[in-house]
Write a structure and sequence with these properties.
Length: 344
């Protein structure tokens, strides 16, 4: 029995050394260590041995099993390492090859304009405020001096969610909310960029969704000349240091007096051309002194506080600055259009 076990060990280890892949190695494992293998048969026949021989043969059989198992494991590690090296060799990457350039995108043109305007007003001491896009009728209209029956509401045909909730038609509600938040006894210097919605027919100059930036300054002794100075600085930083502005009388329910603000045409330097309809001026925004009713409804005493407000369409600013002829270009996601303004 001893000689048979030693012969099985030598035979099995030789077969292990001859195995050249994992499958053949597994066949050796099953052949010698499986339930039907010779070592198992030896162990089953130990009942025929004398009591003195059983422990000796049993110990030897276990040592033979362990020796074969160790040889199998060592060979398996060698074969797996060789297979891995072969795979790595086949999948090797030549790191000396030139890299493939990755196309880098950039901010949307409207985002660039918003960030430029924000930086400009932050530099003048304004803070940036935000508010909800689904707004109450009160803050969207009534708190801005537009009661239920005011005819100016017809100019802002709106998307109503309920009788008292709607998609905001302007970012002015953020101004009303901020004045309420400050409780009528604190100066305000803010701008509020954001998306607004109106039931408008989409064409080259109109969209049912567009972006506004509105500004508000409330303090003691604020004058119309302060408004003009801020807007002149804004226009020159955005359109060029040689730009001039003019204020034309207009009407807005939440400001009194109200003005339309024009800037000298960038194309003709104010001499007159087709772009400015031969006037030398292009309208860029609306503005005015905050109406006393708006101040009063927000808790400010109009005898003590005054202020100015202004609002501009981001798309209009972008169209004027970069010569874009159709507002719909901003929303169609045409890469040919967007890629022109990555560094705008």
């Amino acid at each position: 029995m001893r000689e048979k076990l030693e012969a099985l060990q030598a035979e099995a280890i030789e077969k292990v050394q001859q195995a050249d892949n994992l499958q053949s190695l597994q066949d050796v494992r099953v052949a010698y260590l499986g339930k039907k293998g010779p070592i198992t048969e030896v162990l089953r026949g130990m009942g025929k041995l004398s009591p003195e021989e059983r422990p000796v043969i049993g110990e030897l059989a276990n040592k033979v099993r362990e020796a074969i198992a160790t040889a199998l494991d060592n060979k398996k590690n060698l074969l797996e390492e060789a297979a891995l090296n072969e795979q790595l060799q086949k999948e090797a990457i030549d790191v000396t090859l030139p890299g493939r350039p990755v196309k880098a995108g950039g901010p949307h043109l409207l985002t660039s304009i918003i960030e430029e305007v924000e930086d400009l007003f932050l530099g003048m001491g304004f803070e940036i405020k935000e508010g909800p896009e689904v707004e109450t009728d009160y803050f969207n209209f009534e708190a801005l001096n537009l009661p239920q029956d005011h005819p100016a509401r017809d100019m802002q045909d709106s998307f109503y969610v309920t009788d008292h909730l709607l998609l905001r038609t302007q970012t002015s509600p953020v101004q009303a909310r901020t004045m309420r938040e400050y409780d009528g006894n604190k100066a305000i210097k803010m701008i509020c960029p954001g998306v607004v919605y109106r039931r408008d027919t989409d064409d080259a100059t109109h969209s049912h969704q567009f972006t506004q930036i509105e500004g508000l300054l409330v303090d003691k002794n604020v004058r119309m000349s302060d408004l003009k100075g801020v807007l002149l600085e804004f226009s020159r930083k955005l359109f060029g240091a040689d730009r001039e502005i003019r204020l034309r009388p207009s009407f807005f329910p939440f400001t009194e007096p109200s003005v339309e603000v024009d800037v000298t045409c960038k194309v003709c330097d104010g001499k007159g051309c087709n772009v400015c309809k031969h006037t030398g001026w292009i309208e860029i925004l609306g503005a005015g002194m905050v109406h006393s009713n708006v101040l009063r409804m927000s808790g400010y005493d109009p005898e003590e506080y005054s202020g100015f407000a202004f609002g501009m369409g981001v798309e209009r600013i972008a169209m004027l600055k970069y010569g874009v002829d159709d507002i719909r270009h901003f929303y169609t996601n045409d890469v040919r259009f967007l890629s022109q303004y990555h560094k705008a």
